[in-house]
Amino acid sequence: MAMIKKPVNGMKDILPAEMAVRMYVTELIRKTYAEFGFSSIETPAVEHIENLLSKQGGENEKLIFKILKRGQKLDLTHPTTEEAVTDSGLRYDLTVPLSRYYANHANELPSPFKALQIGSVWRADRPQRGRYRQFTQCDIDILGDASYIAEIELILATTTVLGRLDFHNFTIRINDRKILKDMAKKAGFAEPDYEKVFIILDKMDKIGLDGVREELLASYPAETVDAYLAQFDDTQDPAALMEGSPLPEIIRTVEAVKTADFRIQFDPTLVRGMSYYTGPIFEIAMDEYGGSVGGGGRYDEMIGKFTGQQTPAVGFSIGFERIIMLLLERGFTVPDAERKVAFLIEKKMPAEKLVEVFSEARKERENGSAVAISVMKKNKKFQKDQLAAEGYTEIREFFAR
């Protein structure tokens, strides 16, 4: 069987130039979030299948890469269901693993606990621009704080990162799951139908109001649908819709102290796909991408499913892959990169000359430079051009004589 050199569909190899940008952005994120008091943690890439299928992840639960049982536990002679032969899977996000992590270690952690987690996740999704089957997520979460101070901190920390990456004029859309439920109840929808209604409403930016109405009318009476959609009319007073929620205070505070160039605005059509959200939800919209580049919200009920005790929790995730893609498309280069020097040496170099070359390289490295030593090639011009493309600003040649 021939070996295949291309990566699996929906996954990507990362070349050095992109890797340098990814490493810079990751370090900037860690540094910025540390300034806001977040601590780095790590959870396994593999999670219990029961946790992944706990009806917390919405549509993502249909996209899990499941892992077969191993050894004597795996019986393929009479498999009846997929669940019978699987016991774990690759995580589809970082929130479910974080909730298990906190439930397992709460007695060892401060309260509230401010967590930062950066890692790969996997979804068997349809690959498209800015979307892969393996991709990096970057989450900050505050566990154990029921006040809206947590939401303010998350929004300010996330937007500070984007500002430091020179993103401008983006929008933080914000809503509250309680407002969504109140609007559905007021229109006359039955509570068991809320999630289905919200999934359709979430398509508003793609299919428009008429498209949402058409899909709702396929399952619900016209009177209920019209009463529901009338609440999203532009003439409706946003303040009246937000009454009794923490959103006005969150918006007012963020606007007053923000450092980045962005807008924060109430959007009653914002849903977010995860069914585990229980309160305020938010999303980052960027015109240059044409969609969301991050989001999050409050999920006060998830940790309680592990412990039996409710624990307030709220998180915000940057769309790391999309941010990297936008930076690369605008020709972003890592600022203040270390000085890179290339030493080209003749193929047959006496031992004493090699000692001189490596000693010189050591001195350069001690002074903070990166040094690459390579044997000269016949096409030296092409070799130098390649080195220059890799960021080597100085090239020295060393000869045997």
Describe this structure in words.
This protein has 15 helices and 14 strands. With 401 residues, it is of the alpha/beta class. The protein has two domains: 314 residues, BirA Bifunctional Protein, domain 2, CATH 3.30.930; 59 residues, no CATH class. Helix 14 links the parallel strand 12 and strand 13. The longest helix is centred in the N-terminal third of the chain and has 20 residues.
Write a brief structural summary.
The chain has 401 residues and is α/β, with parallel strands linked by helices.
Topology (elements, then pairings):
Elements: H1 16-35, E1 39-40, E2 46-48, H2 49-52, E3 66-68, H3 82-85, E4 86-90, H4 95-105, E5 113-122, E6 134-143, H5 149-164, E7 170-176, H6 177-187, H7 194-201, H8 204-217, H9 222-229, H10 238-242, H11 247-257, E8 262-266, E9 280-286, E10 291-298, H12 304-307, E11 313-318, H13 320-329, E12 340-345, H14 351-366, E13 370-375, H15 380-389, E14 394-398
Parallel strand pairs: 1-5, 7-8, 12-13, 12-14
Antiparallel strand pairs: 2-4, 3-4, 5-6, 6-11, 7-9, 9-10, 10-11
Helix pairs in contact: 1-5, 5-11, 6-9, 8-9
